[in-house]
Write a structure and sequence with these properties.
heterodimer; A: ABC transporter involved in vitamin B12 uptake, BtuC; B: 248 residues; alpha/beta; Rossmann fold; six-stranded mixed beta sheet; 11 strands; globular; binds adenosine-5'-triphosphate; binds magnesium ion
Chain lengths: 357, 248
């Protein structure tokens, strides 16, 4: 594109502004590296904790394929590792989609709960549990499938209703809340008519559990994440532009409706798969983006990866806590997440002096 | 070159703009004035293609490239937790990659410097004053290297020195780079001083479009703003407009 001359000036790179920007980018990198290190450490501890406490050194050796002890190896590779990695993958998905949701809805309180996606998944799972015996496939397969289907259905409904009125954030949030209540009511109805055993199973599913993790589920989730990442990366600046409000984003030639739709698809797929496998684990989609925002602001190039890292970290820590809080018992992960997440969020909010980031 | 014929904008049943014919040339500043609600912002948005409109609009860039519009909305509120550099970089959204290039940084940096706000570069956008934010958004538009500059009240929040400085910057950019500049202004004296031509809107219709001395006649001012105005000369030969009193 031949241009007369850059109107913003012929001056060479201006030192001060460039330096300031690079300093900011470096801070972001350091925060990212620190979070990655914390995630790695948490992963090791998560693998080591359980009914049989394994020494960290043995865990590290086994993870690197250098283990001597067969039993330790078996415990780690077939039970602990898939569950621990699942915690990271699910946490990262929920953190990432929570941040995207808050961005496209321009609402700091948005998460997969807001749009009824989790409620849809919960209903889908409960439906299979109640009518399970009538199905031709095993419950273990049918529950995630149905949960994913209803999560997708919920978000499709939200978007369809929302787009009748231009798919603005306000309308989408309203439609999401409507769907949330609808699916909660349907879920309550199922619980009402369910047998006592089925009821217990539903409640257990809703609490969320990493014990259902397996390598194949993990691969499927990782594949979804890998497919979504390039789509998100391509839109990352446009998502940042959306933070300046729709009018300004449109002024910067962003097709805000198409952008919201694309983000919506990514969010639905990632959240749908994540909650389908482990149940409705709340709160991570809310707390992780807030942690990231306070540290690096809302440039989505920093916010999204960091939200994913913090999501992974929080769920991994919650997984450790769920195994260690009460010796010998496993507290459902969804409960632990909320128990440690709520005070943490309150502390973050009260403790943060900088109101912008 | 910008040409609009029979331009109309409606929001539901409300007709915000009707039958506007307008021409703006490269290297020229066209100021748009008019009372609140007269359709100025709607005109700019329609020309930029951001609201649906009727009639025809032709935008031709000088060298036949796609017309790149730098549009600055009227609203300067912002709640985003972004730094000033990040905000200004967004003006180059079309060119930006995940990793910000040197050219993008340079453009952002010199736009900030040109407006005298390079020292704000790392500040969070939300922690700026209204006028500082307005300057940042101007820098954002400039950083995008547009061929068409559409500014909706670019100096409404600025102190008197910054008003002059911004208008002078806009004028020199327009001249040097042969931009086609449309700017909405409420300050008639600024319009008289910096615009090559002035378009006056009244209730969605074009009342006049001419050189300042012709457009800013007592009769037009009375019709457009319902004011009685006195016209005179300033010490440097600019036209001065003083609003005396509202007429009913
Ligand atoms: N999004 C909208 N929906 C409905 N009506 C609108 C919308 N935007 C503007 N209008 C109406 O269109 C008319 C023209 O509005 P516009 O914003 O173009 O005025 P303006 O000349 O820019 O006014 P101001 O000087 O106050 O900025 C007004 O009557 C306004 O109420
Ligand atoms: Mg206006």
């Amino acid at each position: 594109m031949s241009k007369v001359q850059s109107i913003s000036g012929a001056a060479p790179v201006t030192g001060a502004v460039g330096a300031a920007y690079r300093h900011h980018a470096r801070t972001r990198l350091i925060v990212g590296l620190a979070a990655t290190a914390a995630v790695a450490l948490s992963l090791l501890v998560d693998i080591a904790t359980g009914p049989a406490l394994l020494p960290l050194a043995a865990v590290a050796r086994s993870a690197l394929g250098l283990a001597a002890d067969r039993t330790v190896d078996a415990i780690i590779w077939s039970i602990r590792l898939p569950a621990a990695l699942m915690a990271l993958a699910v946490g990262a998905s929920l953190g990432l989609t929570g941040a995207m949701m808050q961005t496209i809805l321009n609402n700091p309180l948005a998460s997969s709960y807001t749009l009824g996606i989790s409620a849809g998944a919960g209903f889908g799972a409960a439906l299979v549990i109640v009518i399970g015996p009538l199905l031709p496939i095993s419950e273990a397969t049918a529950i995630p499938l149905s949960a994913f289907f209803f999560a997708g259905l919920a978000s499709a409904c939200v978007y369809a209703i929302g787009s009748l009125r231009g798919a603005t954030p306000e309308i989408l949030v309203l439609a999401g809340i409507a769907l949330l209540f609808l699916f909660q009511a349907l879920l309550a109805l199922l619980q009402f008519i369910a047998s006592p055993e089925a009821l217990q199973q539903i409640v257990f599913w809703l609490f969320g559990s990493l014990q259902k993790a397996s390598w194949s589920k993990l691969y499927l989730l990782l594949l979804t994440i890998l497919l979504c990442l390039p789509m998100i990366a391509a839109d990352v600046w446009r998502l940042t532009a959306l933070k300046l409000g729709d009018e300004r984003a449109i002024g910067l030639c962003v097709n805000v409706r198409a952008l919201r739709l694309r983000a919506f698809v990514v969010i639905s797929a990632l959240t749908g798969i994540a909650v389908a496998f482990v149940g409705t684990i709340g709160f991570i989609g809310l707390v992780a983006p807030h942690m990231a925002r306070m540290l690096v602001g809302e440039d989505q190039r920093g916010l999204l990866p960091l939200s994913a890292l913090f999501g992974a970290l929080v769920l991994s820590l919650a997984s450790i806590a769920s195994k260690t809080l009460v010796p010998g018992a496993l507290i459902p992960i969804g409960i632990v997440t909320a128990l440690i997440g709520v005070p943490f969020l309150v502390w973050l909010i009260i403790g943060s002096r900088r109101s912008f980031w | 070159m910008l040409k609009a014929e029979g331009l109309g904008v409606r929001y539901g049943r409300l007709i915000a703009l009707s039958d506007v014919d307008l021409i703006a040339r490269p290297g020229e500043i066209l100021a748009v004035i008019g009372a609140n609600g007269s359709g100025k912002s709607s005109l700019l948005k329609a020309l930029a293609g951001f609201v649906p409109s009727s009639g025809s609009i032709t935008l031709e860039a000088l060298n036949g490239t796609a017309p790149h519009i730098g549009y600055m909305p009227q609203d300067i509120g912002a709640r985003a937790a972004l730094s000033v550099v990040e905000t200004v970089l967004l003006g180059r959204l079309k060119q930006l990659h995940y990793r910000v290039g040197e050219a993008d940084l340079a453009a952002a940096g010199s736009a900030l410097e040109r407006l005298g706000i390079a020292h704000l570069a790392t500040r969070p956008l939300g922690a700026l004053s209204g006028g500082q934010r307005q300057l940042v958004f101007l820098a954002q538009v400039m950083a995008g290297d547009p061929r068409f500059l559409f500014l909706d009240e670019p100096v409404s929040a600025l102190d008197i020195r910054n008003q002059l400085q911004v208008m002078e910057t806009v004028r020199s950019l327009t001249r040097e780079h042969r931009l086609t500049t449309l700017t909405i202004l409420h300050d008639l004296n600024l319009a008289a001083r910096f615009a090559d031509r002035i378009a006056i809107l009244k209730e969605g219709r074009l009342l006049a479009c001419a050189a300042p001395r012709e457009a800013l006649s007592q009769k037009n001012l009375e019709q457009a703003f319902s004011i009685e105005a006195a016209l005179g000369e300033g010490v440097e030969g600019h036209m001065l407009i003083e609003a005396l009193r509202p007429v009913s």
